[in-house]
Amino acid sequence: MINPARTRILREGEKRQGPVIYWMQRDQRAHDNWALLFAQELAVKSGLELIVVFCLAPSFNNAALRHYRFMLNGLIKTDAELEKYNIPFMLLKGKAGDEIPRIVKESGASVLVSDFNPLKNVAAWKKEAAGKINIPFYEVDAHNIVPCFIASPKAEFGAYTIRPKINRLLDAYLEEFPRLKKMKINFKAPKNNWDEIIKGLRQEKAGNDLSIYRPGEDEALKALQNFMDKVFPVYAEKRNDPSAEGTSGLSPYFHFGHLAPQRAALAIERLTDYPESQKGFLEELIIRRELADNFCFYNRSYDSFDGFHSWAKETLNAHRKDKREYIYDAARFEEGATHDTLWNAAQKEMVITGRMHGFMRMYWAKKILEWTPSPEEALKTAIYLNDKYELDGRDPNGYAGIAWAIGGVHDRAWGERKVFGKIRYMNFNGCKRKFNVDLYINKINTLNEQI
Ligand code: FO1
Hints:
The protein has about 450 residues and is of the alpha/beta class. The protein is built from 19 helices and six strands. The protein has a six-stranded mixed sheet with strand order 1-6-5-2-3-4, with helices on both faces. The chain is globular and about 65 Å long. Ligand FO1 binds near residues 57, 67, 117 and 394.
């Protein structure tokens, strides 16, 4: 039995006989997926068929071709995996607000289930779909260990306020996943023509093709094992060193839902030999990640200046007129053509590899604030570049991270200074104290452009 607290109902509806549809959206995997497990429980209990659908949108928050390729190549594997369980997977194309009601009507579905997503554009899709159907519509948090709407009823100030709330509930929710069951012969969906779909992609090509990252649920589990075997022992001291290979590299798999953060937590929980690494990683994986969902879910201005706390708005307003030592527009930032070799290296790392080290992301965003005429323009530029190039962009983690860097969200006030006001300041010398800047810049400048 799936813990009912992981589920909330988006609309009531009349009970009828017909397939249960799981609209897969954020959690694009067959296993360790609470939304799919809930949908299957409903279907098996009532002897109904189970269908999984995914709606391919023509655009998504400035996602580029390489992001769509990564996502679709992951979905191909999910389609194949579901087939082994007699669960049909249908790829729909177009606006979800039209496509989901259409498939509900055509299939005579009795229940609609989707996975939880705090992003406002996805919430709008669901609202539109909910308004056009008259069957029950459930949403299941398959991404967070403690469901977002259970962890807290409001936007939290920071990790220090949400941490006790999550830790109190962790034992109840950090449980092993039930196995997906094989359905009796189910209705046969038409085969998805994946080659045609991938050839038909029309998104802008931005940055390198990233063929080195292998998408999909199976690759995500391999990446988790590799992290545990090779990186975890040194994670505690290397995680803040951009010149080292000290990060998990799991964020693109979390972003596209190829890996459940709960699966990673269950695995890492066993690694008691490295308590420091374990503490550091679980803080990022559980507290920081669920804080980002909390921020986007309860603060609909998560991508704008209005989303900042009043202390931050006041201090940034008080320094609007400060002279900026350097001024760059989005194009110059995008080219990585500023006066700062460290900043340029971080931008180059993101364009070529589709990722940027966590420590550099903070420096990268804060310098955009410092070298842009207004905080609003800085936020716009940082979000634009992050969403266009990061493999894990277009994600609550990204919006929360940028709001932290530029607007002090989930941070506190620091000593007042030019442009930043009381927003935490970072500079080149601060980076030099933390890690070998030349080594990092060198590593990026010798990156193979053919990635
Ligand atoms: N979600 C969809 O339901 N349909 C899409 O076509 C789609 C495209 C897409 C492209 C890049 C990207 O980073 C995310 C994309 N998403 C899409 C959203 C994704 O499924 C998650 O909802 C978000 O990443 C938020 O976690």
